[in-house]
Amino acid sequence: MYESREMYLETILVLMKRKGQVRSIDIARELNFSKPSVSRAVGILKEDDFISVDADGFIELTEKGQKKAHDIYEKHKVLTTFLTDIIKVAPETAEEDACRIEHVISDDTFRGIKKYLSDK
């Protein structure tokens, strides 16, 4: 569930920034996934201590979850910038590609892209 876990954590972070509070139904709507699929993933994220869920069903990122979500979100933003500003990829394509690349890029390569952008 590595890539999937990261996608869920990033989605929770983005939804929290946008809405303030997040429930499973919000994630299902955002990702266009079924409620049972999201419920299963939420259960796994909770078991792995990435999130907590209160009695009303509101989801919070744990410290561990926040770190992972912020790391993935940073990769997404940096890669999108690199693809649009340096390679001149269309913004929609850059967003989609960044979303895929962020889960498989090595730390060394990511640091190199970040350094390249900061030196520009």
Relevant terms:
120 residues; mainly alpha; Diphtheria Toxin Repressor, domain 2; 2 domains; 6 helices; 5% strand
Topology:
Blueprint: H1 2-19, H2 24-31, H3 35-47, E1 51-53, E2 59-61, H4 63-86, H5 91-101, H6 107-119
Antiparallel strand pairs: 1-2
Helix pairs in contact: 1-2, 1-4, 2-3, 4-5, 4-6
Structure description:
β1 (51-53) and β2 form a beta hairpin. Helix content is 72%, strand content 5%. The mean pLDDT is 94. It is elongated, with a radius of gyration of 15 Å. With 120 residues, it is mainly α. It has two domains: 2-63, Arc Repressor Mutant, subunit A (Orthogonal Bundle), CATH 1.10.10.10; 68-119, Diphtheria Toxin Repressor, domain 2 (Orthogonal Bundle). The protein has six helices and two strands.
What count of domains describes the coordinates? 2
CATH architecture classification name of the largest domain: Orthogonal Bundle
Major sheet characteristics = 2 strands, antiparallel
User: Which topology of the largest domain does CATH recognise?
Assistant: Arc Repressor Mutant, subunit A
How do the SSEs run, as a string of H and E?
Answer: HHHEEHHH
**CATH classification, class level of the largest domain:** Mainly Alpha
Give me the CATH superfamily of the largest domain.
Winged helix-like DNA-binding domain superfamily/Winged helix DNA-binding domain
On the 0-100 scale, what is the average pLDDT?
Answer: 94
Overall strand count:
2
- Please work out how many helical segments DSSP would assign: 6
Shape: elongated
What separation lies between the terminal Cα atoms?
36 Å
Percent of residues in β-strands: 5-15%
